[in-house]
Amino acid sequence: MLARDVTLYVLARLGLVVVVMGALMLVKVPLLPALAVGVVVALPASLFIFKGLRQRVAVGLGEHQAARKAERDKLRSELRGDEGPLTQA
């Protein structure tokens, strides 16, 4: 799920660069300046245009990071020989 969202976000941002660049090339701006302006314009524009997708990616990355931290803490605890929390029977 996370990989799909990240891929979609990256492709959306690249698509926005291509759209801006294409629009500039239609008015006879050369390729390299159009590409440079496309990157500079698409960067802040994508923050507003793809806000929902960006937030979804951020939440997914946070969840992934929390799961990795929990797994890492569990592994370190096992390597130290800690018994972990005691359960009452």
From TrEMBL:
Keyword Transmembrane found: yes
Regions that span the bilayer: 7-25, 31-50
Sequence ranges of Basic and acidic residues compositional bias: 65-83
Stretches assigned to coiled coil: none
Top-rank taxon: Bacteria
Key words of the record: Membrane, Transmembrane, Transmembrane helix
Name used for this protein in its record: DUF4229 domain-containing protein
Record organism: Lentzea kristufekii
